[in-house]
Amino acid sequence: MPPELTDKQLVERAREGKPGAYDILVRKYQHKIVRLISRFVRDPEDAMDLTQETFIKAYRALENFRGDSAFYTWLYRIAVNTAKNQLAASNRHGYQVSLNSSPHPDSEEPMPEPEGLRDYATPENAILTGELEAVIKAAIADLPEDLRTALTLRELERLSYEEIAQVMGCPIGTVRSRIFRAREAVDKRLKPLLEND
Amino acid sequence: MLNKPKISRDERVSAVVDGELPDEVMRDTLDDMEHDPQMRAVLGRYHLVGQVMRSEVPDFVFPDLSERVMAAVEQENAQRSDQIPAAASGKVVSLADRRRSRWPLPAGVAVAASILVATFVLVPAMQQQVDNPGDPAGAGIQQVAANTPAMQQQATAAGHGGGEGNVPVWAVAVQQPEQGASRGMDPYVMTHFEQTARGNHFGSVMPGARLANFQVR
């Protein structure tokens, strides 16, 4: 089942009043939405608050999600509107940022920096992504080659299990198992970092 | 074909992340995940690994963000469930009830007072006017109005003051009746101002105004 269909199924379940289904969607997209909103507002705390607001708005509007577009595309629009509303409010208080442009979902271009931008301290309970990257890279480097290859083909090349099986010359079940074992090994190093903070 | 028992719990979670489970197994796994916060936490971390590898995460990661969102969602659900029983019980809020709720108690009291004044002051005055058709239009009313304590007080004050300058506007209007339909309106205006002068609605149109009916014969 493709990820888009999984999302639709989760939306249906959330509509039926199963909050666990919506939690799965939140966990899946939370970091991407924070990153998107961070292009509009630079204060990490603001970005987190607006991300929270985005997911709550989306939850309230789940009935309106018709499934014509992917769930993330729909969520993306809500996030951009939420961030723009915040920018408009900031403009009234002296920020000067154009509201005419909005980044493409896959764009790496940051929004222009607002005037008077200041450096923000690390927010409470937040983890620097640099730390996560270091831990994950170290964990991947320590993986056996077959596990590392399977995980890299999946996460970076976005190949399907079937395609990875063809590339690696092994059954699909083996691919699934290798990818899982690779994630499990990385997770053992990642989990303490997320739980300690 | 994948069989659920042959795959470990976390391996199924890993396959969910990739959308690589047959429909039936996917449904069962989602069922399990909905009731198992640990499975959802594992899924979140597996997603995070891939997103960090692809540089799809912001400069900061908030580990407790999903908990905060879901706490807000639960609160939202609780509020909804509080509202649903009232609707489900068939309790219908009528338009009259809504209107009533818009009028605070003092306004309701003012309306009742207007009706009472119209009943006990204006109706006898108009009756007297009917009984004495030769009488000037305002005379009867003036007489009745003069019997009210407020009027007596004003009349006393005017007497001591020795001139028209101390007579209130509404009293002047009573003393100088006009012709036609406006003659019937004068006592109403007088009573209206008299009633509203004590409250916050001075000079404004009161809700009970349409209840008064004036017919000059």
Description of the molecule:
The complex is a heterodimer of chains A (197) and B (217). Chain A is mainly α and 197 residues long. Chain A has helices at residues 3-15, 19-37, 44-60, 71-92, 129-141, 145-155, 161-168, 172-196; one strand at 127-128. The longest helix of chain A has 25 residues, at 172-196. Chain B is rod-shaped and about 105 Å long. Chain B has helices spanning 9-18, 23-35, 37-53, 65-88, 95-102, 105-131, 137-147, 149-161, 169-175, 182-196; one strand at residues 60-61. Chain B has ten helices and one strand, in the order αααβααααααα. With 217 residues, chain B is mostly helical. The model of chain B is unreliable at 88-104, 136-146 and 155-178 (pLDDT under 50). The termini of chain B are far apart. Helices cover 67% and strands 1% of the residues of chain B. Strand 1 of chain A pairs antiparallel with strand 1 (60-61) of chain B, so a sheet runs across the interface.
Sketch the major β-sheet of chain B: none
Could you tell me the strand content of chain A as a percent range? under 5%
Q: Which of globular, elongated, flat, extended, rod-shaped describes the shape of chain A?
A: globular
- The N- and C-terminal alpha carbons of chain A lie at a distance of 35 Å
- Main sheet overview of chain A: none
**Average pLDDT metric of chain B:** 67
| Number of E-state strands of chain A | 1
Number of helical segments of chain A? 8
Whole-angstrom Rg of chain B: 38 Å
Shape of chain B: rod-shaped
